[in-house]
C-alpha cells in the first residue's frame, strides 16, 4: 500500500508539478509523455487498493484472498514494466511532440505578438527558463523572463529536450524499481499461501 501511494504521488508530481505541467494547460500536450504517467498513476492506485487483499488474506489466512492478491500483483507487474519500457522507448517521440507544441506557439506569437499569444509565450518561457529557439536577433523581440539570459544557452528546444529526457528517465526507473518490489510481493504471497495450505493439511 505504501509503495502504491508513493507511485501515485510521484506520477502526480510529474504530471501536475514543474515545467511539464504547463504543456498540459494548452490545447495540445505531449500525449506520449503523459500516457506513461497515466499508466504509472493507475498502477499505483491499483497497488494501494489491492493491498487490502494481502492484509486481509494474511490476517485471516485465506488462500482465496492471497491468491487474488497474487493475481493482481501479476497484472501490476506487467503494467509497471510496460510503463518503464514505454518511457525509455518513447522518449524521442515525446520530445518531438513537446518541441512541436512550442514551435506552434512560437509561430502563433510571430503572427500576432499581442494578447493571448504574448501571455502564452511568456508562460512557456517562465516554466522552461528559456528564451526563443537560439537565434539571438529573434529573442530580442520575445517576451522573456528578466532572469533568463538571452543567448544560445537559453534555447527552449534544448530545454524541452533536457526536461523530458530527465523526467522520462525518472518514470522508467520508478516503473522498473517498483516492478522489482512487486516480484518480492508475489514470491512472499505464494510462500504464505503454500504455508497456509500445508498447515491445514497437517491439521
TrEMBL record:
Q: Which family does it belong to?
A: Belongs to the tetraspanin (TM4SF) family.
Q: Membrane spanning segments where?
A: 37-59, 66-89, 170-196
Which Pfam family, giving just one, matches this sequence? Tetraspanin
Q: What is this protein called?
A: Tetraspanin
UniProt keyword annotations, A-Z? Disulfide bond, Membrane, Signal, Transmembrane, Transmembrane helix
Any one GO CC term of this protein is:
plasma membrane
What membrane topology term does the record carry? Answer: Multi-pass membrane protein
Where does the protein principally reside?
Answer: membrane
Instruction: Please give the positions of the paired cysteines in each disulfide bond.
Output: 131-144
Q: Does the keyword Nucleotide-binding apply?
A: no
The UniProt entry, under Gene3D superfamilies, shows: Tetraspanin
- The positions making up the signal sequence are 1-21
Subcellular location(s) per record: Membrane
Highest taxon listed in the record's lineage? Eukaryota
Amino acid at each position: 500500500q505504501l509503495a502504491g501511494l508513493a507511485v501515485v504521488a510521484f506520477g502526480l508530481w510529474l504530471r501536475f508539478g514543474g515545467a511539464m505541467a504547463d504543456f498540459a494547460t494548452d490545447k495540445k500536450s505531449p500525449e506520449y509523455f503523459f500516457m506513461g504517467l497515466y499508466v504509472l498513476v493507475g498502477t499505483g492506485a491499483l497497488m494501494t487498493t489491492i493491498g487490502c487483499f494481502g492484509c486481509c488474506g494474511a490476517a485471516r489466512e485465506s488462500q482465496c484472498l492471497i491468491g487474488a492478491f497474487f493475481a493482481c500483483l501479476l497484472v501490476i507487474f506487467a503494467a509497471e514494466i510496460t510503463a518503464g519500457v514505454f518511457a525509455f522507448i518513447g522518449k524521442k517521440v515525446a520530445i518531438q511532440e513537446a518541441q512541436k507544441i512550442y514551435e506552434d506557439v512560437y509561430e502563433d506569437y510571430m503572427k500576432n505578438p499581442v494578447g493571448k499569444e504574448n501571455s502564452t509565450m511568456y508562460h512557456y518561457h517562465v516554466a522552461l527558463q528559456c528564451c526563443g529557439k537560439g537565434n539571438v536577433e529573434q529573442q530580442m523581440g520575445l517576451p522573456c523572463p528578466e532572469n533568463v539570459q538571452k543567448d544560445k544557452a537559453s534555447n527552449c528546444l534544448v530545454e524541452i529536450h533536457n526536461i523530458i529526457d530527465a523526467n522520462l528517465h525518472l518514470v522508467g526507473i520508478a516503473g522498473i524499481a517498483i516492478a522489482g518490489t512487486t516480484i518480492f510481493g508475489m514470491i512472499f504471497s505464494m510462500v504464505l499461501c503454500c504455508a497456509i495450505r500445508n498447515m491445514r493439511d497437517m491439521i
